[in-house]
Specification:
There is one protein chain. The protein is mainly alpha-helical and about 80 residues long. The chain is built from 5 helices and no strands. Helices cover about 65% and strands about 0% of the residues. α4 runs antiparallel to α5. It starts with a helix and ends with a helix.
Length: about 80
């Protein structure tokens, strides 16, 4: 049983999107919607104040939910003071 748990999972990525769409986990136009979100993120980045921690968070390749959450907290603190 121990050996079976170490076997890698083979996921056919070309069928993964079809599977996600058929089970309504995402829409067919998710890529278009993702581009709109990326454009909004880029526009928001241009309008941000110069805070070193924000710059460090944005220096990474990918911005994920927790980065955005931290940026919002920083912006709330800077606007309050």
């Amino acid at each position: 049983m121990q050996g079976e748990s170490l076997l890698p999972i083979d996921i056919q990525t070309n069928k993964l999107l079809d599977w996600l769409i058929s089970r309504r986990h995402c829409n067919k136009d998710w890529q278009e919607k993702a581009l709109v979100v990326r454009e909004k993120i880029n526009a928001a980045i241009q309008d941000m104040p110069e805070v070193e921690e924000i710059t460090n968070l944005l220096a990474g390749t990918y911005i994920h939910y927790f980065h955005c959450q931290r940026i919002v907290e920083i912006l709330k603190d800077t606007e309050a003071s």
